[in-house]
Amino acid sequence: MTLSGAVAMGTGVMIGAGIFALTGQIAQLAGPFFPLSFIVGAAVTALAAYSYIKMSNAWPSSGGIAMILNKAYGPGTIAASASLLMALSMVINESLVARTFATYALRPFGLESSGLLLSLLALGLIFLAYAINASGNRSVSVFSLVMSIIKIGGIVIFAVAAIWASGLDAGAFSGEAISGGPVDFVASVAFSILAFKGFTTITNSGGEIVDPHRNVGRTIMIAIGICVVTYLLVAIAVGSSLSIDAIIAARDYSLAAAAEPALGWIGFYFTIAIALAATASGVIASVFAVSRMLTMLTEMKMIPHSHFGMSGSLRSHLLIYTVVVAGALAVLFDLSRIAALGAFFYLVMDMLVHWGVFRHLRREVGARATILLAALVADFVVLIAFTIAKLQTDPAIVAYAAVGIAAAFAGEAMFLSRGRHSPAHDHAPHSHQTAKRGPK
């Protein structure tokens, strides 16, 4: 993939999840200050990106996060479990965005509450993502580039027009600002971070990018920059058109709800079309990245694998498994809860990445300890605030997250203890002691 294609893929995942699937949940926690949550989320993400950029510049690869964890901790339980948490959070993201696609598609017909139709449309998009990914890397790159240009241009047009029509002193920004307090605001940043985590798609696909030692880091920072500007514009546009209560009520289709009073039916249908483009490209790009990450984990003997009688390459098998799990999640689960679960999984994995780079690899890759520790502390503060907020409103999801994380670690420990990793890994010295930095 070229630099532009990689940027398009990364922004495809980020914008698909951040704007169309998470805006309402962020507003529910942050109140009228929800646009600021995106700014704080971008700042935390930029800190986090430092670890990934330094590692990817040294060792670009497909499935890059698994590579980072493996080099930091060795091919053991911590690396395998954290990599699995990342993969699960990405699959969760696919189901979340696919469900959002279905909601926007059904909104013009007033059928967005039909569970059956939502499930069928979400499954249809996930299977389309499979077909495009199965056709090869260039198809993903070209499709992502075209869709990203369409949706980013369309979103900016919507945002500017809505702000122009409504002004900056209407909707959620009119009258006295009321929010849930500082803890809830910090908790909202967990969803904002989840909205930006698509940058890891770029890391996971580093081996597919032209001149990766130079372009992986550039791609990540360009994608984050594009997304924070886009998110801020849209958040202000939605907040100027709708009250906080209205945003929360329409959280699965908040942009379409904001477009109608501000821009009329033309704006409404325009926003629907842009939402469909954004969410479709987001799912396609995410399937591309997570299937490659799982392929690398399997090749490293860090997760079990069965062919189930299928022919073809390992990567084709993992692509099928990815869309099957995403489809099941899209059909069976409450996606607001799954979004929270994805945030828990991602933050825990992200903290393990920063600690591993700080503890074992910072000198080898030339990373500054202060930045790594700042990223670690920022993740920890957000995780604690998010946990407190969820314990107050939905304690069950905290329990599910704790059980899921514990199950990932216990399952990986059991699998690896049975000696299913390769002899090469058995006898390899710890990676942070022996790995040589790749060429610049």
Automatic annotation (TrEMBL):
GO MF annotation, one: L-amino acid transmembrane transporter activity
Cellular location(s): Membrane
Membrane-spanning segments: 7-27, 33-53, 73-93, 113-133, 140-165, 177-199, 220-242, 262-291, 312-332, 338-358, 370-391, 397-416
Coiled-coil region: none
Any Gene Ontology CC annotation: membrane
Region Disordered, residue ranges: 421-440
Keywords for this protein: Membrane, Transmembrane, Transmembrane helix
Matching InterPro entries: AA/rel_permease1 (IPR002293), AminoAcid_Transporter (IPR050598)
Keyword flag Lyase: no
Topology in the lipid bilayer: Multi-pass membrane protein
Origin superkingdom: Bacteria
PANTHER family noted in UniProt: AMINO ACID TRANSPORTER, SOBREMESA, ISOFORM B
Protein name: APC family permease
Species this protein is from: Tsuneonella suprasediminis
Classification of source organism: Bacteria, Pseudomonadati, Pseudomonadota, Alphaproteobacteria, Sphingomonadales
